[in-house]
Design a protein that fits this description.
The protein is mainly β. It is built from no helices and 7 strands. It has a 4-stranded antiparallel β-sheet with strand order 4-3-2-7, with no helix packed on it. It has a 3-stranded antiparallel β-sheet with strand order 1-6-5, with no helix packed on it. A hairpin with a 2-residue loop joins strand 3 and strand 4.
Amino acid sequence: MIRDREFALEGDDVKLSCNYSGSARGVHWYRQYIGSPPQFLILEYSGVTTPANPPVPGITINHRKEQVILEISSAAVSDSALYYCALRPTITGNIVT
């Protein structure tokens, strides 16, 4: 399911879901601010979670069968951005940086 917008109040916990069919060995989450390139947030690969370096505060991931949920704890105005998931890396080079 694709959602156009997710609304939350400052301080709310926000969950964004990424659904896929079939198998996925790695799911990458990114955040993009207007006029800026995508920023890698977190990766779940074969049950192992790898955050960005340095990690983005308040960002966690929860992987269920065919669904990966990005959790933003205590959302702030600065969390307003476009979030997207990818089954393959979309930023070349070292995905952790």
